[in-house]
Design brief:
The complex is a heterodimer of chains A (229) and B (299). In chain A, strands 6-7-8-3-9-10 form a six-stranded mixed beta sheet, with helices on both faces. In chain A, strands 2-1-4-5 form a four-stranded antiparallel beta sheet, covered by helices on one side. With 229 residues, chain A is α/β, with parallel strands linked by helices. In chain A, helix 5 packs parallel to helix 6. In chain A, strand 4 and strand 5 form a beta hairpin. The longest helix of chain A has 16 residues. Helices cover 73% and strands 8% of the residues of chain B. Classes of the chains: A alpha/beta (229), B alpha+beta (299). Chains A and B meet through helix 2 and helix 3 of A and helix 1, helix 9 and helix 10 of B.
């Protein structure tokens, strides 16, 4: 589902590459933690998958798309199949919970009927049934992240990318979000999550890809955050 | 394409930048209003030229001496001149006006003024009023009559009317210049509004890009926002022209120049230029919006 082949990414502003000859292969339906210290290249990794950036060398594949060589006009198609959540939720504060989720479908031209049907379903999936009319600022951090997950998942993406989704949440709430991501993973969606959270990685025992200074230094099928860290 | 969604986004955008929106509508209205005024001035000048083109003559005034002696152009000096003119290929027609007729015309022109009471028929010259085949051939006519006995002066009436035309043309040029400056101002305001609007909506635009909205979908609300202000601005401009005609222009022309001197601008004239103004208003707004999005806003 996700394949990086010998991918390097350098920025002009830095002498050291953000990613250095990285090769990773993630199968359909896998759950992968991307770990490593700040500046290790986790965010660059995710940006390449979303085609927010293109690699300096190597190839990036998501499903059947050769992401790096995708023409600009085809990029929206890719992004429609790759959901994304962030540490800071990125909700639209002037829209209600339901409108935030519906927005993701409306802007890709889904018919109103589909939107009316799908939005309540996905809100129920993330445990926010009955809160469609609340505004984001009336919700707790955990609830806001659920809205963000609902928005990322509402179009049933092949891949869900999560960049430190629990970074702003307390441990209990983090656990709830992880359960939600697991539930989404069980529907067949590949989940790739960048995180610093030891306890989550250690408790879930999923595949762990560890980056350091832009290189993959560990790739374990049922890994923990790291010995001695 | 979800039209109601796009429509809603446009309304939100316009409401959020309400002061900017109003400024833009007004600037567009002023620039297109001035442009419309300029076009109407051109139209009026054309009409006026047409109105006078047929009536204008070259007046060959006779010397007073010849005028007094010959009241029906039967004597050799006047008749010779008339025949020579009639046989010239430059000339379409020649009419003789004697002192009595000149006096009557004078009385009619200066009716009610002191000048009318002072004039005597003997003081006014008789004239041969010449209509040329080509009104621009006055020079050739002057050359033809150069040094002829009995001719005191040759007056081209178009020279007199030319002053009126040049006045109208100056108005037109000033109005066009102002219109162009205003169009530039409107374009800059539109560009500003689009940038401001994009900045205000950077989170929305970010989310749109993230969830895979096409470039077209992301840009459309901004372009429509610009186009809507363009339409409203033009509507205001056309409305102002119509109101301006009804309330000021008609009476200004009648009071300033007298009835029928300058043709009155018709409502149909305004309506016939308004489609072009609309096209221009929407065009400027959309093109500026699009260029701004391409150059300054990452969508």
């Amino acid at each position: 589902m996700i394949r990086l082949e010998n991918v390097s990414k350098s920025y002009r502003t830095s002498t050291r590459p953000a990613l250095d000859r990285v090769s990773v292969d993630v199968g359909k339906g896998e759950f992968v933690f991307l770990i490593g210290p700040s500046g290790s290249g986790k965010s660059t990794f995710l940006r390449l998958l979303l085609r927010e950036d293109v690699p300096t060398k190597g190839d990036v594949f998501v499903s059947d798309w050769n992401v790096a060589k995708l023409p600009r006009r085809r990029v929206p198609r890719l992004r429609q199949r790759v959901g994304c959540v962030f540490q800071d939720f990125r909700l639209l504060q002037n829209k209600s919970v339901g409108e935030n989720v519906a927005f993701a479908l409306e802007v890709i031209g889904k018919p109103a009927g589909t939107v009316r049907k799908v939005v309540p379903e996905v809100l129920e999936l993330v445990g926010l049934e009955g809160k469609a009319h609340r505004m984001p600022r009336e919700l707790s951090g955990g609830e806001q992240q659920r809205v963000a997950v609902a928005r990322a998942f509402v179009n049933r993406p092949l891949v869900l990318l999560a960049d430190e989704p629990t970074g702003n949440l307390d441990p209990d709430t983090s656990q709830d979000i992880m359960l939600l991501l697991e539930r989404i993973n069980r529907t067949g969606t590949t989940v790739m999550m960048a995180t610093h959270d030891h306890s989550i990685v250690d408790s879930m025992r999923r595949r762990v890809v560890e980056l350091d200074l832009g290189r993959v230094i560990r790739d374990e099928t049922r890994g923990v955050y790291g010995v001695g860290r | 394409m979800r039209f109601n969604f796009v429509f809603r986004e446009v309304l939100i955008g316009l409401r959020r930048n309400i002061t900017m929106t109003i400024a833009m509508i007004l600037t567009t209205a002023i620039s297109l209003g001035l442009l419309g005024t300029g076009l109407l001035a051109v139209h009026t000048i054309d009409d006026t030229e047409e109105l006078y083109g047929d009536r204008l003559e070259v007046v060959v005034s006779m010397t007073l001496d010849a005028s007094t002696r010959d009241q029906d152009c039967s004597q050799s000096i006047c008749a010779g001149l008339r025949d020579e003119l009639r046989s010239s290929p430059l000339v379409q027609s020649v009419n003789f006006e004697n002192q009595q007729q000149a006096y009557a015309r004078f009385q009619r022109l200066f009716q009610g003024q002191t000048l009318a009471g002072l004039a005597r028929p003997q003081g006014l010259p008789a004239s041969l009023r010449v209509k040329l085949v080509d009104p621009n051939q006055v020079g050739a006519l002057r050359a033809l009559l150069q040094g002829k006995v009995g001719v005191s002066r040759i007056t081209d009436q178009r020279d007199v009317v030319e002053r009126l035309f040049s006045f109208l043309r100056t108005i037109r040029d000033v109005v066009f210049t102002l219109a162009i400056i205003e169009v530039v101002a409107a374009a800059l305001l539109i560009s500003n509004m689009v940038q401001l609007s994009a900045f205000n909506r950077r989170t929305e635009v970010g989310v749109m890009r993230l969830v895979g909205a096409t470039r077209w979908y992301t840009q459309l609300p901004f372009l429509l926002e610009a186009a809507v202000t363009g339409v409203l601005g033009t509507a205001l401009a056309v409305g102002s022209l119509l109101v301006g005609k009804a309330m000021f222009l008609d009476s200004a022309i009648t009071n300033g120049f007298g009835d029928g001197v300058i043709p009155i601008v018709q409502y149909s004239d305004i309506l016939s230029i308004s489609p072009w103004l609309f096209l221009l208003g929407i065009g400027i707004a959309s093109v500026t919006g699009y260029v701004t999005l391409r150059l300054y806003v990452r969508l």
